[in-house]
Amino acid sequence: MGIISNIRSILKDAKEYRASGNVNDPVYWQNFFQQFGVTSLSNQTVTPDTAMQLAVVFACVRVLAETIASLPLMVYKRRADGGKEPATTNDLYFLLHDQPNPDQTSFEFREMIMGHLALRGNAYSYIERTGGGGINALYPLNPARMQVSKNRGELFYQYMYEDGKSARIPTADIWHIRGLSNDGIVGLSPISMAKEAIGLAMASEQYGAKFFANYAKPGLAITYPGKLNEDAAKELKASINDAQTGANVFKTMLLQGGLDIKQIGLSNEDSQFIELRQFQIEDICRIFRVPGVLINYTGDKSSTYASAEQFFISFITHTVRPWASRIEQSAARCLMTDKEKRKMFAEFNLNDFVRGDLESRYRAFQIGLQNGWLSPNDVRKLENLNPIESKEGDKYFMPLNIAELGSNPKVEEPKKDGDSDADKTAK
C-alpha cells in the first residue's frame, strides 16, 4: 500500500471517528491516534495487542488480572454501631460477587476489566437497567472502541460497535474505572506511557529471533585477492549464500582462487544481549509494579523479605490495594444512588493474602481471644469454619487482671480449706 493509500485510509477512519466524538476535544484526537499505536525510537509499533505478545507483559497483566479476579468483591451494609454486614439481599451484591451477566462469572468479569486497566488505563462496563431503574446486569465494553469527551462539565461516552455503527451511551449507564489520569476524564495507558521500554524489549526479542533464525551465525565478509566485476561479485555472493542455507547449512565449503571468509558482527556476549533482555524484564515489571518472582523471574535481587508474609503484604499494599480502591470507589460512584452510598459500600476481601503461616495465625488468634477483641466464632469465621451454634461461641473474654485506669476493683480472696461462704462474709 502506497503513501497516498495510507493517508486516504487514515482520513477515512478519521471521518468515521468524527461522527462519534467532539473534534475540538484534545482527548478525542489522543484516543483516535491510539488506535494505530505509537512508534518507539526502536522503530517498533507499540499497541496493547503487540505489547501482549511480549512474555513479560503478558505475565504481568495476567498476575494483576488474576489477582483482582480471585479476591471476593463484597457489598456491605453499614451498621448503626459502626460495623458492617454483607448485603446479600441486594441485587448489586449478586452482580459483583457472583455473576454480573449471563455470559460471565464474577471471576471472568473482574479478570477482564483488570486486564483493560493494566493495558489501556480504562475499563468500561454497560449498566443494563430494569424498568424501575435498578441494575439488571453489567457488560464489559472494549475500551479501544470507546471515546470519552467532556462538554460544559458533562461527560459523554461514544461507543463504536463492531459493525462500524456508534451510539452515545448515557453517563448513568456506564461504569467507568480510570487509572492514573491527567485530566480526570480518561486514564493514561501504561503501554503508551512506557512505549520506549516496551519497544526496546520488542526490538531485542526480534533481534534474538532473527539471530537464531540464521542458526545463531553472524554475517560473513568475503575477501578476494583479485578484482571482480559487479556480475561476478553478485554470483559469488549468491553461491556462498546457497552453500550455507537450507539443506546445505553447516556443510563444509571448499574455497578456491584465494577466497577468504571471515565472520563479522558482535557476539551476543559482546553486545550484552542477555543483560539487555534481563534489564527489560525488570523495567517492564516496574511499569506494572509486579515483583519479578511472581512471573517466575529470579534475576532481580534488589528486594528481599524476611518472610513470604511480608512479601505479600508489600505486594498487596503497593500493587493490589490501589487498583482495588479504584474499583471499589468507582462502583460506589457509578452503581449506587446517593441514598445507597450512605448505607452501603463495596469492598474487596484481602485477608487471604495476609493470612500468614498456620503457627503465626494461631498465635494472633490466641492474643485476640485472651484480650477480648475476638470471640471463638470470630476466629472460626476467619478460618472459614462454621460458627459454634451455642451462645458460648459469641462470648468475648477478658483477663481478670485488666481493669479501667484509675479504678480500684475489688478482688476476692481465695477460699481457704474449711472456709464457707458464710465465714467469708463474716470476715
From TrEMBL:
Residues 410-427 have a biased composition (Basic and acidic residues). InterPro entries: Phage/GTA_portal (IPR006944), Portal_HK97 (IPR006427). Pfam families: Phage_portal (PF04860). Residues 407-427 are annotated as: Disordered. NCBIfam families: portal_HK97. This is Putative portal protein. It comes from viral metagenome.
